Amino acid sequence: MRLFYHDGPYGHVHDDEDHDHDLDNNMLWISDHIELNTVGIDIGSAGTQLIFSKLQLARRGEDLSSRYVVVGRGSFYRSPVSFTPYSDNSRIDHEEIARIVDDAYKQADMNAEAVHTGAVILTGEAIRRENAQAIGDALAEKVGNFVCATAGHNMEAQLAAFGSGAARRSYDKNERILNIDMGGGTTKLAVVEKGKVTQTAAIYIGGRLVVTDEEGVIVRLDPGGASIAERAGYRLQLGDRVTPDQLQAMGDWMAQAVVDCIAQRPLSDRCRDLYLTPELQDLGRIDGVMFSGGVAEFIYEREERDFGDLGLYLGQAFHKLFDNSRFPWEVLPAGECMRATVVGASEYTVQISGNTNYISDHSLLPKKNVQVLKPEFELEGEINPEELAESIRFHLKSFGIQEGKADIALAFHWKGTPEYGRVRALAEGIVDGLQRTIAGGRPLLIVLDGDLARTVGSILHEELKLSNPIVSIDGIMLQDFDFIDIGQQLEPSMTVPVTVKSLLFRM
Fold this sequence. Notes:
Layout: H1 16-32, E1 33-43, E2 47-59, E3 68-78, E4 82-83, E5 86-88, E6 91-92, H2 94-107, E7 117-122, H3 132-142, E8 147-151, H4 153-164, H5 166-173, E9 176-182, E10 187-193, E11 196-203, E12 210-212, E13 218-221, H6 223-231, H7 244-263, H8 269-274, E14 288-292, H9 294-299, H10 311-323, H11 340-347, E15 350-352, E16 358-359, E17 367-373, H12 385-398, E18 408-412, H13 420-433, H14 435-439, E19 444-448, H15 453-463, E20 470-473, E21 483-486, E22 497-501
Helix pairs in contact: 4-11, 7-10, 12-13, 13-15
């Protein structure tokens, strides 16, 4: 792993003592600063693209925390956007995808060994293809040391909100922003407040649900495209010829439907049928809307070419809404449009743990696709081990998980001081609550947001005499329903990369 250095007075050494002092300071600085090469690979309904970025992280030493935070990020290579290749209506062309990825790595002068982390994300209609998950998993294995495969509408909505710049703007200006990411197959919605995504949703509207050749003959018709065409007054099927007026009518219908799905309450049956996720709740005050995704290129008039799909017509339809005052929110200036999701995948998918971890066996890592459980137990004040154990067992039962059959990660939010008695009680509660896991010899995976992972691991192993493998890491914030990948320990910072993701294919 390459590390970045600050400028310093190296070379001005006058004796061995000064030299040793400078080396010590240098190594301390290195351990507190990390630079990672990351990759984002977005295989979407319409386009496939890659972005390579650098993340610079520093330890939060000012508050005596071991947690690392991102202090700089930016891309250093962006591939051309290629149409996502399909071998037929049910499968993605894996050989052509591999060629696109290999070409991008060559152009970026990168190889798998130089990539520390990142994500392969399949989005929109691409998720529905029969071999989507196999392609995602295969690419994740070949393109870097710790690259995860992920899919899911809510995940994509979050990545788009960060990649577009909506999250940054909401933080900088203290605004509540709605990010509307319109891709080829779906439209993702994210409400962002003070830099945090508070709600996500997705609806079945996209710019490439109908594709025609140069003669206007339909060569691709997704189920959502046929349904929308019918609602706009047309019955379409593959091989039919459509006119620009018909495509514009579909675009007009979709643009109005997007507004209605967001603003209308209660929802009409039409809108309810379009939602692919639970609907947005309590929209509240919206200070502005930012558009991203491929269709946003037309909405912001940065693209005017007709690609034989609905993108151009959707852009024109939104401008009709703007001009007739039928769009109820202020439209904010453009950030990233077409590349918002892949920027999010490259620059916003990874968290770095603190450097006070406990890993009993480094061959355990990496661990991929581990389900997170966060028991509803407040770790503040006096901790009762029996009550904590019961909370763990109840949470496992609530999620229908057969303990001891698969790896799980227990996540906790720590409150208060890390006094020995309190930490010991936490460790005892974990042991009591995971008896089948321990009896079966499975690893204990524990994730904390406070700086006590090493102490917890030491108590489990040395005082409570557990022989199970233990991975106890801190500085990471997780929730129920998360899935995580845990990477190998990074040297010399002694940190661990953790990717939080969704694993929803074939929706």
